[in-house]
């Protein structure tokens, strides 16, 4: 007999929970794509997207997931045979590197493992050694969704500047945008990519490339760019359809409008960052109290505020994930990048998403369900996890 009768919650690190308001905004007949409401509404998205990204530069929208944004960023700024440097801190930097390799770009990686952030010192040394300036771009993720590490973007920028290296700085904010503080312009990010289905709370299917004027200037030399992926007409359209290289993703755009109303107009991006930080700290407090589990990233300053990777010595994580999904109505994330399914270690990792549409009832519901699962499974786990989490939430002041 299962207790699982009620509203379920998806707490995997993307897609995230879609607010009912966003779903309802999408529930409408197809709009005219040549004139009328859709055209004005779409134009209104860009200023709010730029507020979320903290940039005054260019934004291009793609009907694609995050992988599409990776490819778009590369296509507009690189040529076949160019060399790039990718900082790997989990799974997703490597994914971007693989995309680049597939496009004929020469990729060098600096791998920092599954439990650490990218070391600015090592980046600086590598760039100083590149006297001929062969490296055209430095690529990193802000939050690696597999390890849940958060890279220090301003420190990495400083390392590039310290090496006096002209490489463009690319940052993947697919997991972090709208959750972790990000200030594209102030932090000196040249190209930033994100998707709509995580912090932006919209069903998967749209992604975004933000690029500054330095990156725009590089495009004329990039021989990988093709008509469809070209960011210029998307960011500077003379006709509506050019923003999407064809038919607009009509309903996604209405959904995104509602999500941006909630995030930018109603809550405010700084308040959203503060909320995510408090929610993340509540999760960490609970996990630290469960003595059968531990946090993958030991230094709190290096942890994502959008997702937390949790580990156990044995198969506790896998059993707990299974119980929560089938008995508790809570779907937690699988481990990524540690062990493959069926290998030893597969059941020793889980991930808790705390990105996007999240308040205390959802967060305490998730943590309370996990606590219940540990009890039901007879896994010794200590006591006080929920007290520890609620004490953090109680101290929130934005
Ligand atoms: C989710 C994610 C991706 C991949 O996005 P898709 O939409 O699945 O293609 C890339 N990078 C990071 C950091 C992510 O969290």
TrEMBL record:
<comment type="similarity">
    <text>Belongs to the class-V pyridoxal-phosphate-dependent aminotransferase family.</text>
</comment>
<dbReference type="Pfam" id="PF00266">
    <property type="entry name" value="Aminotran_5"/>
</dbReference>
<keyword id="KW-0663">Pyridoxal phosphate</keyword>
<dbReference type="GO" id="GO:0019265">
    <property type="term" value="P:glycine biosynthetic process, by transamination of glyoxylate"/>
</dbReference>
<feature type="domain" description="Aminotransferase class V">
    <location>
        <begin position="69"/>
        <end position="329"/>
    </location>
</feature>
<dbReference type="InterPro" id="IPR015422">
    <property type="entry name" value="PyrdxlP-dep_Trfase_small"/>
</dbReference>
<dbReference type="InterPro" id="IPR015421">
    <property type="entry name" value="PyrdxlP-dep_Trfase_major"/>
</dbReference>
<feature type="modified residue" description="N6-(pyridoxal phosphate)lysine">
    <location>
        <position position="198"/>
    </location>
</feature>
<dbReference type="GO" id="GO:0004760">
    <property type="term" value="F:L-serine-pyruvate transaminase activity"/>
</dbReference>
<feature type="binding site">
    <location>
        <position position="351"/>
    </location>
    <ligand>
        <name>substrate</name>
    </ligand>
</feature>
<protein>
    <submittedName>
        <fullName>Septum site-determining protein</fullName>
    </submittedName>
</protein>
<dbReference type="InterPro" id="IPR000192">
    <property type="entry name" value="Aminotrans_V_dom"/>
</dbReference>
<dbReference type="GO" id="GO:0008453">
    <property type="term" value="F:alanine-glyoxylate transaminase activity"/>
</dbReference>
<dbReference type="InterPro" id="IPR015424">
    <property type="entry name" value="PyrdxlP-dep_Trfase"/>
</dbReference>
<dbReference type="InterPro" id="IPR024169">
    <property type="entry name" value="SP_NH2Trfase/AEP_transaminase"/>
</dbReference>
């Amino acid at each position: 007999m299962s207790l699982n009768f009620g509203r379920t919650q998806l707490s995997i690190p993307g897609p995230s929970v879609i607010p009912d308001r966003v779903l309802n905004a999408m529930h409408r007949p197809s709009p005219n794509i040549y004139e009328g409401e859709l055209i004005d509404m779409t134009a209104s998205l860009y200023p709010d997207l730029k507020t979320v990204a903290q940039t005054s530069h260019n934004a291009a929208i793609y009907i694609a997931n995050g992988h599409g944004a990776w490819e778009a960023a590369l296509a507009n700024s690189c040529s076949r045979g160019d060399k790039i440097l990718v900082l790997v801190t989990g799974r997703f930097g490597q994914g971007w590197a693989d995309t680049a390799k597939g496009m004929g770009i020469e990729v060098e990686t600096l791998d920092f493992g599954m439990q650490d952030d990218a070391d600015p010192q090592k980046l600086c040394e590598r760039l100083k050694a590149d006297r001929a300036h062969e490296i055209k771009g430095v690529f990193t993720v802000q939050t690696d969704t597999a390890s849940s590490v958060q890279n220090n973007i301003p420190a990495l920028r400083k390392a590039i500047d310290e090496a006096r290296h002209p490489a463009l700085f690319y940052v993947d904010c697919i997991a972090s945008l709208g959750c972790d503080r990000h200030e594209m312009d102030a932090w000196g990010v040249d190209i930033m990519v994100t998707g709509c289905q995580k912090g932006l709370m919209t069903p998967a299917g749209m992604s975004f490339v933000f690029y500054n004027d330095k990156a725009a200037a590089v495009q004329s030399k990039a021989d990988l760019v093709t008509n469809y992926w070209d960011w210029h007409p998307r960011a500077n359209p003379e006709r509506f359809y050019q923003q999407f290289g064809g038919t607009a993703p009509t309903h996604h755009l209405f959904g995104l409008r509602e999500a941006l109303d909630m995030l930018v107009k109603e809550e405010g991006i700084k308040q959203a960052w503060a909320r995510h930080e408090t929610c993340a700290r509540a999760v960490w407090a609970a996990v630290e109290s469960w003595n059968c589990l531990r946090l993958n990233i030991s230094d709190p300053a290096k942890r994502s505020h959008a997702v937390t990777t949790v580990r156990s010595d044995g198969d506790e994580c896998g059993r707990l994930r299974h119980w929560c999904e089938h008995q508790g109505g809570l779907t937690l994330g699988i481990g990524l990048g540690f062990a493959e399914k069926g290998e030893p270690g597969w059941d020793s990792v889980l991930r808790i998403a705390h990105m996007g549409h999240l308040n205390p009832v959802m967060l305490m519901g998730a943590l309370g369900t996990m606590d219940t699962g540990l009890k039901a499974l007879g896994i010794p786990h200590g006591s006080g996890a929920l007290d520890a989490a609620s004490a953090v939430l109680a101290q929130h002041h934005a």
